[in-house]
Amino acid sequence: MNDHRSVSIVMIEDDEGHARLIEKNIRRAGILNDIMHFTDGTTALDYLFNHKDGPALNGPALVLLDLNLPDMSGTDILAKIKAEGALKRTPVVVLTTTDDKVEIQRCYDLGCNVYITKPVNYESFAQAIRQLGLFLSVIQVPDIESD
């Protein structure tokens, strides 16, 4: 075994049906990474930033983010992820029903890597996830101490 840390996938999606579909598509794309599913932003942010197994303390993750959550806006979560040092480079895929051009641009301005409109077109979703998977497989996880 090498000590290369596997990238965990953090899915923040309040709709169970969409969550199951997204997970099925990820598996169909041949990606077997662990998926942590959260149905609200508060719990997800706590995991991302504070949990001992979370990405801020324990290394690389890919975030799948719905914008319409029961307790807060997905754009607020995106802004928090991209503002924080430990998570700043974390790839974020926005998956949402909103195809408003202003909202899409705002997400890219905040630092999202891919914006996908639901219902998810399987091929474009699989392609985006594969590209990010490729990106994640070659990414070097920096030491937190290094300058």
TrEMBL record:
The organism's place on the tree of life at top rank: Bacteria
InterPro entries: CheY-like_superfamily, Sig_transdc_resp-reg_receiver, TCS_response_regulator
UniProt KW keywords: Phosphoprotein
SMART domains given in the database record: REC
Signal peptide: none
PROSITE patterns tied to this protein: RESPONSE_REGULATORY (PS50110)
4-aspartylphosphate modification, residue list: 66
Keyword set includes Phosphoprotein: yes
Residue span(s) of domain Response regulatory: 8-133
Pfam families, per the entry: Response_reg
Coiled-coil regions listed in the entry: none
Name of the protein in its database record: Response regulator
Gene source species: Sphingomonas immobilis
